[in-house]
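Replying to the earlier thread about multi-chain prediction with a worked example.

Input:
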Amino acid sequence: MKRLRSLFCAAAAALLLAACAGQPLRGTGDLGLIIERASGHVTLVNTSTRQPYARIAGLGDLSHASAVYSRDGRHAYIFGRDGGLTKIDLLEAKIVKRVIQSGNAIGGSISQDGRIVVAQNYTPGGIKAFDAETLELLSEVPAEYAPGKFSKVVGLADSPGNKFAYALFDGGEIRVTDFSDPRAPKTERYPAGSQPYDGLVTPDGRHFLAGLFGEDGVALLDLWQPEKGARKILENYGRGEQKLPVFKMPHLRGWSVAQGKAYLPAIGRHEVLVVDVATWKEVGRIPVRGQPVFVMARPDGRQIWVNFAFPDYGMVDVVDTLAGKVVKQLEPGKGILHMEFTPRGEHVWLSARDDNKVVIYDTGSFARVGEIPADNPSGIFFTTRAARIGF
Amino acid sequence: MKPVVLRGLSAALLFCLVAVSTVEVQAADPLTARQRELVRMVRQDCGSCHGMTLQGGLGPALLPAELKDKPVEGLAATIYYGRPGTAMPPWQRFLNEAEAHWIAERLMTEFPQ
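Result:
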Protein backbone atom coordinates (compact mmCIF):
# COMPACT_ATOMS: atom_id res chain seq x y z
CA MET A 1 0.00 0.00 0.00
CA LYS A 2 2.76 2.33 1.01
CA ARG A 3 4.61 1.46 -2.17
CA LEU A 4 1.53 2.15 -4.26
CA ARG A 5 1.06 5.53 -2.64
CA SER A 6 4.64 6.59 -3.30
CA LEU A 7 4.27 5.49 -6.92
CA PHE A 8 1.15 7.58 -7.20
CA CYS A 9 2.93 10.54 -5.66
CA ALA A 10 5.80 10.20 -8.09
CA ALA A 11 3.42 10.09 -11.03
CA ALA A 12 1.56 13.15 -9.75
CA ALA A 13 4.83 14.97 -9.26
CA ALA A 14 5.91 14.11 -12.80
CA LEU A 15 2.61 15.37 -14.17
CA LEU A 16 2.94 18.56 -12.17
CA LEU A 17 6.48 19.13 -13.41
CA ALA A 18 5.38 18.60 -17.00
CA ALA A 19 2.57 21.07 -16.48
CA CYS A 20 4.96 23.63 -14.99
CA ALA A 21 7.37 23.26 -17.86
CA GLY A 22 4.44 24.23 -20.05
CA GLN A 23 5.80 23.25 -23.42
CA PRO A 24 7.78 20.23 -24.51
CA LEU A 25 11.41 20.72 -25.41
CA ARG A 26 11.87 22.00 -28.90
CA GLY A 27 14.42 23.48 -31.31
CA THR A 28 14.26 26.78 -33.14
CA GLY A 29 15.13 25.79 -36.72
CA ASP A 30 11.60 26.09 -38.07
CA LEU A 31 10.55 29.22 -36.19
CA GLY A 32 10.28 32.79 -37.30
CA LEU A 33 8.44 36.03 -36.85
CA ILE A 34 6.20 38.40 -38.75
CA ILE A 35 6.41 42.16 -38.18
CA GLU A 36 3.00 43.79 -37.84
CA ARG A 37 4.10 47.30 -38.64
CA ALA A 38 1.14 49.42 -37.68
CA SER A 39 0.35 48.01 -34.27
CA GLY A 40 3.78 47.33 -32.81
CA HIS A 41 3.24 43.56 -32.64
CA VAL A 42 5.19 40.58 -33.85
CA THR A 43 3.54 37.25 -34.54
CA LEU A 44 5.71 34.21 -33.91
CA VAL A 45 5.31 31.42 -36.44
CA ASN A 46 6.28 27.84 -37.12
CA THR A 47 7.20 27.03 -40.72
CA SER A 48 6.57 23.29 -40.29
CA THR A 49 2.99 23.64 -39.07
CA ARG A 50 2.56 26.86 -41.09
CA GLN A 51 0.78 28.33 -38.08
CA PRO A 52 1.34 31.21 -35.68
CA TYR A 53 2.03 30.14 -32.11
CA ALA A 54 2.26 33.42 -30.19
CA ARG A 55 1.89 37.18 -30.56
CA ILE A 56 3.94 39.79 -28.71
CA ALA A 57 2.90 43.42 -28.20
CA GLY A 58 4.72 46.56 -27.21
CA LEU A 59 7.46 46.94 -29.80
CA GLY A 60 6.76 50.56 -30.74
CA ASP A 61 6.88 51.91 -34.30
CA LEU A 62 7.69 48.95 -36.50
CA SER A 63 7.46 50.63 -39.89
CA HIS A 64 10.48 49.38 -41.79
CA ALA A 65 11.44 47.11 -38.88
CA SER A 66 13.87 44.26 -39.42
CA ALA A 67 15.22 41.40 -37.33
CA VAL A 68 18.41 39.43 -36.88
CA TYR A 69 18.89 36.23 -34.89
CA SER A 70 21.25 34.98 -32.23
CA ARG A 71 23.42 32.02 -33.28
CA ASP A 72 21.13 29.52 -31.60
CA GLY A 73 18.08 31.02 -33.26
CA ARG A 74 16.40 31.47 -29.90
CA HIS A 75 16.55 35.23 -29.70
CA ALA A 76 15.52 37.80 -32.27
CA TYR A 77 16.76 41.37 -32.18
CA ILE A 78 14.21 43.68 -33.72
CA PHE A 79 15.16 47.14 -34.93
CA GLY A 80 12.22 49.56 -35.04
CA ARG A 81 11.94 52.82 -36.92
CA ASP A 82 11.58 54.72 -33.64
CA GLY A 83 15.06 53.61 -32.54
CA GLY A 84 13.75 50.77 -30.40
CA LEU A 85 15.91 47.66 -30.16
CA THR A 86 13.93 44.74 -28.75
CA LYS A 87 15.30 41.32 -27.84
CA ILE A 88 12.70 38.57 -28.06
CA ASP A 89 12.83 34.99 -26.82
CA LEU A 90 11.14 32.83 -29.44
CA LEU A 91 10.82 29.83 -27.15
CA GLU A 92 9.28 31.64 -24.21
CA ALA A 93 7.48 34.00 -26.59
CA LYS A 94 8.28 37.15 -24.69
CA ILE A 95 10.30 40.34 -24.74
CA VAL A 96 13.56 39.83 -22.85
CA LYS A 97 14.83 43.38 -23.07
CA ARG A 98 14.02 46.57 -24.89
CA VAL A 99 16.02 49.79 -25.23
CA ILE A 100 15.49 52.98 -27.22
CA GLN A 101 18.87 53.44 -28.81
CA SER A 102 18.36 56.32 -31.24
CA GLY A 103 15.80 58.73 -32.64
CA ASN A 104 15.36 57.06 -36.00
CA ALA A 105 16.74 53.67 -36.98
CA ILE A 106 16.71 51.63 -40.14
CA GLY A 107 17.97 48.19 -39.21
CA GLY A 108 20.87 46.29 -37.79
CA SER A 109 23.08 43.29 -37.89
CA ILE A 110 24.84 40.76 -35.64
CA SER A 111 28.53 39.91 -35.48
CA GLN A 112 30.16 36.71 -36.67
CA ASP A 113 30.67 35.52 -33.10
CA GLY A 114 27.13 36.46 -32.11
CA ARG A 115 28.24 38.71 -29.25
CA ILE A 116 27.64 42.13 -30.75
CA VAL A 117 24.45 43.57 -32.17
CA VAL A 118 24.95 46.68 -34.28
CA ALA A 119 22.17 49.14 -35.11
CA GLN A 120 22.29 51.55 -38.05
CA ASN A 121 20.70 54.91 -37.55
CA TYR A 122 19.41 57.80 -39.57
CA THR A 123 19.19 60.18 -36.61
CA PRO A 124 21.72 60.72 -35.24
CA GLY A 125 23.51 59.27 -38.28
CA GLY A 126 25.85 56.47 -37.35
CA ILE A 127 26.05 52.96 -35.95
CA LYS A 128 25.96 51.69 -32.37
CA ALA A 129 27.22 48.41 -30.96
CA PHE A 130 25.40 46.55 -28.16
CA ASP A 131 26.20 43.53 -26.06
CA ALA A 132 23.98 40.81 -27.53
CA GLU A 133 23.35 39.37 -24.07
CA THR A 134 22.42 42.51 -22.14
CA LEU A 135 21.87 45.17 -24.85
CA GLU A 136 24.37 47.33 -22.99
CA LEU A 137 25.83 50.02 -25.29
CA LEU A 138 29.45 49.14 -26.07
CA SER A 139 30.45 51.86 -28.51
CA GLU A 140 29.20 54.11 -31.25
CA VAL A 141 30.62 55.29 -34.54
CA PRO A 142 29.08 58.54 -35.82
CA ALA A 143 28.72 58.75 -39.60
CA GLU A 144 30.44 62.12 -39.79
CA TYR A 145 31.53 62.61 -43.39
CA ALA A 146 32.45 66.28 -43.24
CA PRO A 147 33.04 68.45 -40.16
CA GLY A 148 29.76 68.60 -38.27
CA LYS A 149 27.84 66.72 -41.00
CA PHE A 150 26.37 63.33 -40.23
CA SER A 151 24.96 60.94 -42.79
CA LYS A 152 22.08 58.52 -42.69
CA VAL A 153 23.50 55.01 -42.61
CA VAL A 154 22.22 52.33 -45.00
CA GLY A 155 23.05 48.76 -45.96
CA LEU A 156 24.71 47.61 -42.73
CA ALA A 157 25.82 43.99 -43.07
CA ASP A 158 28.05 41.72 -41.01
CA SER A 159 31.18 40.27 -42.51
CA PRO A 160 33.78 37.86 -41.13
CA GLY A 161 36.12 39.07 -38.37
CA ASN A 162 33.37 40.90 -36.46
CA LYS A 163 33.50 43.58 -39.12
CA PHE A 164 30.50 45.45 -40.42
CA ALA A 165 30.22 47.11 -43.81
CA TYR A 166 27.74 49.89 -44.49
CA ALA A 167 27.19 52.95 -46.64
CA LEU A 168 26.49 56.63 -46.06
CA PHE A 169 23.50 57.93 -48.03
CA ASP A 170 24.43 61.59 -47.65
CA GLY A 171 28.17 61.03 -47.46
CA GLY A 172 28.58 58.83 -50.55
CA GLU A 173 30.97 56.46 -48.76
CA ILE A 174 31.30 52.81 -47.93
CA ARG A 175 32.65 52.19 -44.45
CA VAL A 176 33.98 49.12 -42.73
CA THR A 177 34.07 49.12 -38.94
CA ASP A 178 36.02 46.45 -37.11
CA PHE A 179 34.51 45.56 -33.73
CA SER A 180 37.17 42.99 -32.76
CA ASP A 181 37.59 45.20 -29.73
CA PRO A 182 33.93 46.15 -29.31
CA ARG A 183 34.63 49.13 -27.08
CA ALA A 184 37.32 50.52 -29.40
CA PRO A 185 36.09 50.01 -32.97
CA LYS A 186 38.25 50.94 -35.95
CA THR A 187 36.71 52.37 -39.11
CA GLU A 188 37.98 52.59 -42.68
CA ARG A 189 36.34 54.85 -45.28
CA TYR A 190 36.01 54.34 -49.05
CA PRO A 191 34.48 56.86 -51.50
CA ALA A 192 31.61 55.06 -53.23
CA GLY A 193 29.41 57.30 -55.37
CA SER A 194 26.26 59.36 -55.17
CA GLN A 195 23.58 58.46 -52.62
CA PRO A 196 24.03 54.78 -51.78
CA TYR A 197 20.55 53.58 -50.81
CA ASP A 198 21.26 50.06 -49.51
CA GLY A 199 24.00 47.46 -49.42
CA LEU A 200 24.72 43.77 -49.25
CA VAL A 201 27.52 41.40 -48.32
CA THR A 202 27.81 38.41 -50.66
CA PRO A 203 27.06 35.01 -49.08
CA ASP A 204 30.79 34.20 -48.89
CA GLY A 205 31.42 37.41 -46.97
CA ARG A 206 33.94 38.69 -49.49
CA HIS A 207 32.26 41.56 -51.34
CA PHE A 208 30.16 44.50 -50.21
CA LEU A 209 27.88 46.07 -52.79
CA ALA A 210 26.15 49.41 -52.36
CA GLY A 211 23.37 50.33 -54.78
CA LEU A 212 23.48 53.96 -55.87
CA PHE A 213 20.44 56.19 -56.19
CA GLY A 214 22.14 59.38 -57.29
CA GLU A 215 23.75 57.77 -60.34
CA ASP A 216 23.43 54.57 -62.33
CA GLY A 217 25.62 51.82 -60.98
CA VAL A 218 26.64 49.84 -57.94
CA ALA A 219 29.72 50.41 -55.78
CA LEU A 220 31.74 47.27 -55.05
CA LEU A 221 34.31 46.80 -52.30
CA ASP A 222 36.41 43.64 -52.04
CA LEU A 223 36.57 43.05 -48.29
CA TRP A 224 39.54 40.74 -48.76
CA GLN A 225 41.49 43.59 -50.38
CA PRO A 226 39.79 46.73 -49.12
CA GLU A 227 42.95 48.76 -49.67
CA LYS A 228 42.12 48.65 -53.39
CA GLY A 229 39.09 50.81 -52.65
CA ALA A 230 35.53 50.71 -53.96
CA ARG A 231 34.95 50.53 -57.69
CA LYS A 232 31.84 50.98 -59.75
CA ILE A 233 30.06 48.23 -61.60
CA LEU A 234 26.97 48.38 -63.82
CA GLU A 235 27.94 51.94 -64.55
CA ASN A 236 25.54 53.74 -66.86
CA TYR A 237 23.20 50.77 -67.07
CA GLY A 238 20.50 53.26 -68.00
CA ARG A 239 22.54 54.70 -70.88
CA GLY A 240 21.19 58.16 -70.24
CA GLU A 241 17.54 57.09 -70.40
CA GLN A 242 15.14 58.98 -68.18
CA LYS A 243 14.60 57.09 -64.96
CA LEU A 244 11.03 56.37 -63.89
CA PRO A 245 9.98 58.00 -60.64
CA VAL A 246 11.04 55.77 -57.74
CA PHE A 247 8.23 55.36 -55.23
CA LYS A 248 10.15 53.02 -52.99
CA MET A 249 13.85 52.31 -52.61
CA PRO A 250 14.83 48.74 -53.45
CA HIS A 251 16.34 46.49 -50.80
CA LEU A 252 19.59 44.63 -51.20
CA ARG A 253 20.84 41.64 -49.24
CA GLY A 254 22.97 38.56 -49.91
CA TRP A 255 19.87 36.62 -50.98
CA SER A 256 20.21 38.03 -54.48
CA VAL A 257 23.27 35.94 -55.28
CA ALA A 258 22.48 32.62 -56.97
CA GLN A 259 24.30 30.25 -59.29
CA GLY A 260 27.36 32.48 -59.66
CA LYS A 261 25.30 35.51 -60.54
CA ALA A 262 23.91 38.46 -58.64
CA TYR A 263 20.36 39.51 -59.49
CA LEU A 264 19.95 43.17 -58.66
CA PRO A 265 17.03 45.60 -58.86
CA ALA A 266 17.47 48.26 -61.56
CA ILE A 267 16.51 51.47 -59.85
CA GLY A 268 13.89 53.46 -61.75
CA ARG A 269 13.41 50.67 -64.29
CA HIS A 270 11.24 47.62 -64.74
CA GLU A 271 14.25 45.33 -64.88
CA VAL A 272 16.37 42.94 -62.88
CA LEU A 273 20.08 43.29 -63.69
CA VAL A 274 22.17 40.13 -63.85
CA VAL A 275 25.86 40.32 -62.95
CA ASP A 276 28.50 37.59 -63.13
CA VAL A 277 30.09 37.58 -59.67
CA ALA A 278 33.44 36.30 -61.02
CA THR A 279 33.95 39.27 -63.34
CA TRP A 280 31.33 41.69 -61.94
CA LYS A 281 30.25 42.39 -65.52
CA GLU A 282 26.62 42.71 -66.54
CA VAL A 283 25.52 39.55 -68.32
CA GLY A 284 21.83 40.18 -68.75
CA ARG A 285 18.66 42.05 -67.93
CA ILE A 286 15.31 40.53 -67.19
CA PRO A 287 12.19 42.58 -67.86
CA VAL A 288 9.67 42.44 -65.02
CA ARG A 289 6.28 44.05 -64.36
CA GLY A 290 7.35 46.87 -62.06
CA GLN A 291 10.26 48.45 -60.23
CA PRO A 292 11.81 45.67 -58.16
CA VAL A 293 12.04 46.13 -54.39
CA PHE A 294 13.14 42.67 -53.23
CA VAL A 295 14.96 40.37 -55.64
CA MET A 296 15.36 37.17 -53.65
CA ALA A 297 16.82 33.85 -54.66
CA ARG A 298 15.27 30.64 -53.41
CA PRO A 299 17.92 28.94 -51.24
CA ASP A 300 18.86 26.53 -54.07
CA GLY A 301 19.26 29.44 -56.50
CA ARG A 302 16.92 28.01 -59.14
CA GLN A 303 14.30 30.72 -58.75
CA ILE A 304 14.37 34.46 -58.12
CA TRP A 305 11.24 36.02 -56.67
CA VAL A 306 10.69 39.71 -57.34
CA ASN A 307 8.20 42.07 -55.74
CA PHE A 308 7.57 45.66 -56.73
CA ALA A 309 7.28 49.22 -55.55
CA PHE A 310 4.01 51.14 -55.31
CA PRO A 311 1.77 51.08 -57.33
CA ASP A 312 2.66 47.63 -58.71
CA TYR A 313 2.99 45.92 -55.35
CA GLY A 314 0.11 43.53 -55.86
CA MET A 315 2.24 41.49 -58.22
CA VAL A 316 5.17 39.12 -57.91
CA ASP A 317 7.29 37.76 -60.77
CA VAL A 318 9.26 34.53 -60.55
CA VAL A 319 12.43 34.18 -62.63
CA ASP A 320 13.81 30.76 -63.51
CA THR A 321 17.60 31.16 -63.39
CA LEU A 322 18.15 28.37 -65.89
CA ALA A 323 15.79 29.91 -68.45
CA GLY A 324 16.92 33.44 -67.53
CA LYS A 325 13.38 34.84 -67.71
CA VAL A 326 10.14 35.23 -65.83
CA VAL A 327 8.31 31.91 -65.81
CA LYS A 328 5.46 32.74 -63.44
CA GLN A 329 3.46 35.87 -62.75
CA LEU A 330 1.49 35.95 -59.52
CA GLU A 331 -0.99 38.31 -57.89
CA PRO A 332 -0.71 37.09 -54.30
CA GLY A 333 -2.51 39.99 -52.60
CA LYS A 334 -2.62 43.71 -51.93
CA GLY A 335 0.56 45.45 -50.89
CA ILE A 336 3.12 42.63 -51.08
CA LEU A 337 5.89 44.13 -48.95
CA HIS A 338 8.24 41.25 -48.20
CA MET A 339 9.02 37.60 -48.87
CA GLU A 340 10.86 34.90 -46.95
CA PHE A 341 11.74 31.38 -48.00
CA THR A 342 11.47 28.39 -45.69
CA PRO A 343 14.92 27.03 -44.81
CA ARG A 344 15.27 24.90 -47.93
CA GLY A 345 12.89 26.84 -50.08
CA GLU A 346 9.90 24.55 -50.67
CA HIS A 347 7.63 27.39 -49.58
CA VAL A 348 7.77 31.15 -49.68
CA TRP A 349 5.83 33.38 -47.30
CA LEU A 350 4.65 36.74 -48.58
CA SER A 351 3.21 39.58 -46.54
CA ALA A 352 0.12 41.15 -48.07
CA ARG A 353 -0.11 44.32 -46.04
CA ASP A 354 -3.46 45.59 -47.24
CA ASP A 355 -5.08 42.16 -47.01
CA ASN A 356 -3.92 41.83 -43.39
CA LYS A 357 -2.42 38.43 -43.95
CA VAL A 358 0.66 36.48 -44.83
CA VAL A 359 0.18 34.08 -47.73
CA ILE A 360 2.21 30.92 -48.26
CA TYR A 361 3.05 29.52 -51.69
CA ASP A 362 4.58 26.25 -52.77
CA THR A 363 7.56 27.28 -54.93
CA GLY A 364 7.35 24.12 -57.06
CA SER A 365 3.68 24.13 -58.01
CA PHE A 366 2.99 27.84 -57.26
CA ALA A 367 -0.10 26.68 -55.38
CA ARG A 368 -1.21 28.68 -52.37
CA VAL A 369 -0.81 26.35 -49.43
CA GLY A 370 -1.79 28.50 -46.49
CA GLU A 371 -2.30 31.89 -44.95
CA ILE A 372 -1.90 33.54 -41.57
CA PRO A 373 -3.80 36.59 -40.36
CA ALA A 374 -1.59 39.54 -39.40
CA ASP A 375 -2.23 43.23 -38.84
CA ASN A 376 -0.56 45.15 -41.69
CA PRO A 377 2.28 42.64 -42.01
CA SER A 378 5.62 43.81 -43.39
CA GLY A 379 8.88 41.94 -42.74
CA ILE A 380 9.00 38.15 -42.33
CA PHE A 381 12.13 36.72 -40.73
CA PHE A 382 12.94 33.03 -40.20
CA THR A 383 15.63 31.72 -37.86
CA THR A 384 17.64 30.30 -40.77
CA ARG A 385 19.06 33.80 -41.05
CA ALA A 386 21.04 33.09 -37.87
CA ALA A 387 23.57 30.99 -39.76
CA ARG A 388 23.98 33.14 -42.86
CA ILE A 389 26.72 35.69 -43.46
CA GLY A 390 25.38 39.13 -44.27
CA PHE A 391 21.97 38.67 -42.63
CA MET B 1 13.93 70.74 -65.71
CA LYS B 2 13.70 74.21 -64.19
CA PRO B 3 10.88 75.65 -66.34
CA VAL B 4 8.79 72.59 -65.52
CA VAL B 5 9.26 73.08 -61.81
CA LEU B 6 8.51 76.78 -62.07
CA ARG B 7 5.43 76.10 -64.10
CA GLY B 8 4.43 73.53 -61.54
CA LEU B 9 4.94 75.93 -58.70
CA SER B 10 2.95 78.71 -60.32
CA ALA B 11 0.19 76.30 -61.28
CA ALA B 12 0.06 75.08 -57.72
CA LEU B 13 0.04 78.65 -56.46
CA LEU B 14 -2.79 79.63 -58.78
CA PHE B 15 -4.71 76.61 -57.74
CA CYS B 16 -4.16 77.45 -54.08
CA LEU B 17 -5.56 80.94 -54.46
CA VAL B 18 -8.75 79.49 -55.84
CA ALA B 19 -9.07 76.47 -53.61
CA VAL B 20 -7.68 77.42 -50.25
CA SER B 21 -10.92 78.72 -48.74
CA THR B 22 -12.99 75.67 -49.60
CA VAL B 23 -10.30 73.30 -48.37
CA GLU B 24 -10.15 75.09 -45.04
CA VAL B 25 -13.88 74.81 -44.59
CA GLN B 26 -13.72 71.07 -45.24
CA ALA B 27 -10.84 70.47 -42.86
CA ALA B 28 -12.98 70.04 -39.78
CA ASP B 29 -15.48 67.72 -41.44
CA PRO B 30 -15.19 63.96 -41.24
CA LEU B 31 -12.99 62.57 -43.99
CA THR B 32 -14.48 61.49 -47.28
CA ALA B 33 -13.68 58.04 -48.63
CA ARG B 34 -11.14 59.54 -51.02
CA GLN B 35 -9.48 61.49 -48.20
CA ARG B 36 -9.18 58.34 -46.18
CA GLU B 37 -7.49 56.76 -49.19
CA LEU B 38 -5.08 59.69 -49.36
CA VAL B 39 -4.32 59.40 -45.65
CA ARG B 40 -3.55 55.74 -46.08
CA MET B 41 -1.33 56.46 -49.08
CA VAL B 42 0.61 59.09 -47.14
CA ARG B 43 1.12 56.88 -44.10
CA GLN B 44 1.82 53.65 -45.95
CA ASP B 45 3.49 54.69 -49.20
CA CYS B 46 5.01 58.09 -48.48
CA GLY B 47 5.82 56.35 -45.19
CA SER B 48 8.37 54.13 -47.00
CA CYS B 49 10.74 57.07 -46.90
CA HIS B 50 9.16 59.53 -44.45
CA GLY B 51 8.12 56.96 -41.84
CA MET B 52 4.62 55.73 -41.10
CA THR B 53 4.45 58.17 -38.20
CA LEU B 54 5.95 60.81 -40.52
CA GLN B 55 8.95 61.29 -38.25
CA GLY B 56 11.30 60.91 -41.20
CA GLY B 57 13.50 58.21 -42.62
CA LEU B 58 15.49 58.43 -45.81
CA GLY B 59 13.24 61.42 -46.47
CA PRO B 60 12.76 64.29 -44.01
CA ALA B 61 10.19 64.35 -41.20
CA LEU B 62 6.77 65.66 -42.21
CA LEU B 63 5.52 66.79 -38.82
CA PRO B 64 3.93 70.23 -38.25
CA ALA B 65 6.99 71.46 -36.33
CA GLU B 66 9.26 70.70 -39.30
CA LEU B 67 6.89 72.19 -41.87
CA LYS B 68 5.67 75.30 -40.08
CA ASP B 69 7.94 77.75 -41.89
CA LYS B 70 7.30 76.33 -45.34
CA PRO B 71 4.62 77.69 -47.68
CA VAL B 72 1.81 75.21 -48.18
CA GLU B 73 1.81 75.74 -51.95
CA GLY B 74 5.47 74.77 -52.10
CA LEU B 75 4.74 71.56 -50.23
CA ALA B 76 1.79 70.82 -52.50
CA ALA B 77 3.99 71.36 -55.56
CA THR B 78 6.65 69.06 -54.10
CA ILE B 79 4.06 66.35 -53.65
CA TYR B 80 2.58 66.84 -57.10
CA TYR B 81 5.76 67.43 -59.14
CA GLY B 82 8.44 65.85 -56.98
CA ARG B 83 11.82 67.45 -56.42
CA PRO B 84 14.26 66.79 -59.27
CA GLY B 85 17.74 65.95 -58.06
CA THR B 86 16.43 64.36 -54.87
CA ALA B 87 14.74 61.06 -54.07
CA MET B 88 11.30 62.74 -53.94
CA PRO B 89 9.23 61.46 -56.89
CA PRO B 90 6.20 63.22 -58.44
CA TRP B 91 2.89 61.75 -57.29
CA GLN B 92 0.75 63.29 -60.03
CA ARG B 93 -0.17 59.91 -61.44
CA PHE B 94 -2.02 59.16 -58.23
CA LEU B 95 -3.65 62.41 -57.17
CA ASN B 96 -4.70 65.79 -58.51
CA GLU B 97 -3.39 69.17 -57.40
CA ALA B 98 -6.31 69.81 -55.08
CA GLU B 99 -5.56 66.55 -53.30
CA ALA B 100 -1.85 67.38 -53.06
CA HIS B 101 -2.83 70.65 -51.50
CA TRP B 102 -5.18 68.99 -49.05
CA ILE B 103 -2.36 66.62 -48.00
CA ALA B 104 0.08 69.53 -47.55
CA GLU B 105 -2.42 71.41 -45.41
CA ARG B 106 -3.18 68.45 -43.24
CA LEU B 107 0.52 67.71 -42.80
CA MET B 108 1.02 71.25 -41.49
CA THR B 109 -1.72 70.93 -38.90
CA GLU B 110 -2.36 67.44 -37.65
CA PHE B 111 -2.29 64.56 -40.04
CA PRO B 112 -5.19 62.09 -39.60
CA GLN B 113 -4.40 58.53 -38.48
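The first helix of chain A runs from residue 2 to 21.

Feel free to reuse this layout for your own posts.
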